[in-house]
Amino acid sequence: MARVNQLKPSERMKIPRQKSLEQSPDVRSGNFEEVSHGLTEPDAQVEATRCLECHDPVCITGCPVNIDILSFIQRMMVRDYAGALAKIREANLLPAICGRVCPQESQCEAVCTLGIKHEPVAIGKLERFLADYERKQQLTAPTAVLERTDRRVAIVGSGPAGLTCAAELARIGHRVTIFEALHAAGGVLRYGIPEFRLPRRILDAEIEGVKSLGVEVVANFLVGRTATIDELFDDWGFDAVFLASGAGTPHFLNMPGENLIGVYSANEFLTRVNLMHAGNFPTFDTPLRISRAVAVIGGGNTAMDAVRTARRLGAGHALLVYRRSREEMPARAEEVAHAEEEGIQFMFLTNPTRVLGTDDHRVRGLECQRMRLGEPDASGRRRPVPIPDSTFVVHVDTVIEAVGQSPNPILQKTTTGLSVGKNGTVDVDAAQQTSRKGVFAGGDLSRGGATVILAMRDGKLAAASINQYLSSLPHRSDGRSTGAEVHDAFAGFQGAVE
Question: Please, is 341 exposed, middle or buried when counting C-beta atoms within 10 Å of its C-beta (0-12, 13-18, 19+)?
Answer without folding.
Answer: middle
